[in-house]
Amino acid sequence: MPIEAAADALLRIVVKGERERSTAANSSWTKGRPWVDTVAPAATDTLDVQGIVADPIGTACRAELRRIGHALHATNPDEDFVALQVEIAEADMSHAGWRAIVLEMAWHGIGEAEATPAEPAP
User: For residue 98, how many C-alpha atoms fall within 13 Å in the half-sphere facing its CB?
Assistant: First the structure.
């Protein structure tokens, strides 16, 4: 599906940048060890001005990933969104862990059921 291919392409860019930043920040990290953290917070639908200043390419890619997540959910609202995240993350098994973390942050909150107010007690 073309939209998943677009998400895959964006993930490749974001993960490369995250790995480079992680390596620079943690000199003891070696290739092949799992990635456990990122400098980017979970995404929202607001403009991330600080992110644009610090990492314009990664921030733009994350914003586009978020738009793709909204589009995927709107197109298939009954589909298991978590399963879709796993499927896209595992499109590149060599970096599946990194990709899963990036997608989880980019798609944070998308597809979650709206909270309904509790019924007042009689």
Answer: 25
Look up residue 120 and give its two tokens: 């007042």
Cα distances from 2 to residues 5, 7, 9, 71, 90, in angstroms, run 5, 9, 11, 12, 16
* Token output for 9: 């392409």
pLDDT tens, the chain, 122 aa long: 688 888 888 888 888 877 777 677 676 666 666 555 555 567 788 888 887 787 888 888 888 999 999 998 898 888 888 888 899 999 988 888 888 888 888 888 887 754 344 455 55
Question: Among 33, 82, 41, which residue's Cα sits nearest to residue 58?
Answer: 41
Nearest to 62 by CA among 76, 71, 53, 52: 52
CA distance 23 to 29: 6
